[in-house]
Specification:
This protein has about 150 residues and is an alpha/beta fold. It is built from seven helices and six strands, in the order ββαββααβαβααα. It starts with 15 loop residues before the first strand and ends with a helix.
């Protein structure tokens, strides 16, 4: 999705990252745009741009704060350190950490289950609300839920 100029969080369908190898820099920031993220235990991950004299891009600052909170986002983005798969769970990045051979099958199983059992419009409006939530106060969230329920 990002290759055509649309970040994954704007796609109306569930977007699942199956990261069964290393994801450093842009690869990691693209995974952060996804709704669900499966990571390989054996992989090496990080948003390392600050160690290269540049800053993270591809919505990395915006997405990371929403996914893991300010303190963890700062730990990840400002240090540029790399970490292994099990650490993605501790940091709150991974939906699930698995051996690399199980990452793609798990992602495909979730995609298949969602395609069969979830209503596309419900997924689309719920996803939109989830990604916008942190910018809204509780009353605005309630209003959006009501508004979107009657599309």
């Amino acid at each position: 999705a990002a290759a055509i100029g649309m970040p994954a969080f704007k796609v109306r369908k569930l977007v699942i990252a199956a990261v069964n190898g290393h994801a450093i820099g842009l690869g990691m920031t693209l995974a952060m745009q996804c709704d669900v993220r499966f990571f390989a235990r054996e992989g090496k991950y990080g948003i390392v741009q600050v160690r290269r004299g540049v800053m993270g891009d591809a919505y990395s600052h915006w997405a990371m704060v929403r996914l893991v909170g300010l303190a963890r986002a700062a730990e990840i983005i400002l240090t540029g350190k790399t970490f292994k798969g099990d650490e993605t769970e501790r940091l709150g990045i991974a939906s699930e950490v698995l051996p690399s051979a199980e990452v793609l099958p798990a992602a495909l199983a979730l995609a298949r289950d969602t395609a069969i059992h979830a209503a596309p419009l419900s997924v689309a409006v719920s996803k939109k609300l989830l990604w916008e939530l942190s910018e809204l106060n509780p009353e605005q969230v309630e209003h959006k839920e009501t508004e979107l329920a009657y599309l």
